[in-house]
## 1
Amino acid sequence: MSSAPRIVVVGDVAVDVLVEPSRPAVPGADVPARIRTTAGGAGANTAAWLAHLGADVTLVGRVGDDPAGRAAADELRAAGVLPVLAVDPHHPTCTVVALLGDGDRTLLSDRGAAAHLRPTDVPDLDADHLHLSGYVLLDPSSRAAGLAALEAARAAGISTSVDPQAAPALTRAFQEWVRGADLLLPNADELTALGGADTLLRDVTAVAATCAGDGATWHDRRGTWSTGTTAVDVVDATGAGDAFDAGLLVAWLDGAGPEAALRSGCAAAARAVGRSGARPPAPTGNRRLAR
């Protein structure tokens, strides 16, 4: 693909509240902690990394009619992403609390308006590729919108990718929802929950699975390819998978083979875990949207 790939991401826009306790919390204690608020949401994170890596990106989602939702739209524009965000008059913008420690994190999520994404919120897809956040499919309240996005992509003849994103919630039904997708992007736990690559390849064309610090593996009907990862000091693991998705997709849509696409994904993930928050560095200068 000679020009920047045009990618539509459908997924959550959120406020991330990052909490680093100074010591383990116990009932009844007042534990000092470092607490920060940053832009987040799996779909929005991937969109921001895609834009950072040179793609032409539109983010489709739903936010509350509140300061957080308006700020989220401004932050996406500043990152080079075109936000197409429905405004929900009844539910607040999604908020995720991330408890950080020892390079890992525990997430506490209130999807708010994101849980009420509707099929009518998904515009006509004038793009080369659709990337769908699995959270949209896993929540019954937004599932119809995710299925509508996949159907719209099929009708438009564009490629698709899905990140499952929540191993405990995955069932055989998820495989039915994503049947026909070009690429599934699970982590190791999600891959296991879905029955492994051989099972998934009955329903999707390819699987690119991350293995935390052990790199990533690509599976398709031709075979399997793997790549390791460079050791990095983990500052914050939030958003690493979202960045991996972006790095891999930009390379893959530009014609890269499995190994090169995996290396691109791992490089983006390494950059993500080496900084605080789930988004890439703010762009320097004025970034003009490609619309």
Note: The longest helix spans residues 258-273.
## 2
Amino acid sequence: MTLGELDWIKQLLVCPRCRSALAEKPGALNCSAPACLYHAAMTFPMAGPWPVLVDFERSVVDREEVVAAADRSRADGPKPAGLVHRLPAPLRRLWKPPNRVAARNVDLLLRSLLGPAPRLLVVGGATVGNGVSAAYHDPRIQVIGFDIVGSPVTQFIADAHQIPLPTGSVDAVLAQAVLEHVLDPTLVVAEIHRVLKDGGFIYAETPFLQQVHAGAHDFTRYTASGHRYLFRRFEELAAGPVAGPGTQLLWSVDHMVRGLTRSALAGRAVRGLMFWLRTLDRLVPPSYAADDASAFYFLGRKSDREMSAQEIIDYYRGAQVPA
């Protein structure tokens, strides 16, 4: 695939370093600005069908590894379904229940997007997240997806710290289970704010009490208040736990067994047997869940006003309010 074949998105893509227009050359792209490092001295390679729009001088993303990973993916073909995906549907739902919180909020997000072809940018969109598939099935929505790896549901590879899109170019952003995997979440959220149109929407889900996942690429956790302050330049439309203390306890039991047995399989087996712990989430009052949730969500609208430090102190909704 060449940039010319990406007709519906090619007019949007810009240099991640200076945000100038891109020019196509055989097997690569370069920046059209003569003063930019990526005009002549360096280029943006193609990794299989995906343009790699990363400022490698300012990123932990490795140029050679990204291209090599795409080559391996094409050579190996589609990966076989994992054990969980081979289970009957009722058992799959017990192991990984549908994310109804995400489904509800994405439905609200889609209904809030006006016009004939609103653009939804999916940050870290190498896979379709749990509960967000409606965004991909709505024929009215123009989905733009990117990640640091290519996939069938992404159009380009990029680092979220420098999103290669113009200012004010998308109507909404989806960032599900992404911000824990970036080195500077504040910078990434600032980039999200920049690429959104005035009044544009953000939906994000981020862990609070979860074990390390994705190995060396897992950096950050947020309380409810910390998550709200991360999005301090957005008006809150809805926010709260994605999953509560019961789910958090289930994850902890899984990983405790892994540690005791040195076996991820043993942890998963115990997790499957104790799936019922999730149901305890329904019994915990919201104020207690806010102090002990597995993850939080935020649905907001881009604002010109920034939340103050005093306001974030007053924002706390947990059970530890002084009498």
Note: The chain has ten helices and eleven strands.
